[in-house]
Known about the structure:
Elements: H1 10-22, E1 33-37, E2 43-48, H2 79-86, E3 96-101, H3 105-114, E4 118-123, H4 130-141, E5 145-148
Parallel strand pairs: 3-4, 4-5
Antiparallel strand pairs: 1-2, 1-3
Helix pairs in contact: 3-4
Amino acid sequence: MAKRNDYIDWDEYFMGVALLAAMRSKDPNTQVGACIVNRDRRILSTGYNGLPRGLSDDDFPWSRDGAWLDTKYPFVCHAELNAILNNPGTSLAGATIYTALFPCNECAKAIIQAGLAEVVYLSDKYADTDITRASRRMLETAGVCLRRLIPKIRELRLDFTTVDLAGDVGEADPTN
């Protein structure tokens, strides 16, 4: 029997992990995930955009418009920063961060400070904004490799029913 040929490549795998992390975000408009990987292709950390630890998602606004303090922007931590902060203390020097969206200028600062060597991203939809221009300038000046991922596949599908857990696969628990 020959090996499978329809497996995903490393970039698609790690971006898939970032996109899966994004599904944890409570943000009603934008869900971004990030996955940090070392040179040995080991996942060091993940993150998604959300409120800082210990703050209730129900006590802060999720709006994009209005007075600044009535929006999500002063309160939400971006996926890239969360991935850096979620790292258990191992060195991130030389690592790669996979992220759904090109990092903002604030995340770029953290990426540079953490010593990350490469940013792999899916979307650069804010490329024409000053925030992204500042980010790109800092990252390029710091020598961080920037690479847009053009996946060979269109989608990844997760199906929890494909694994037989000793015949114990049933209805999903609606409380989770």
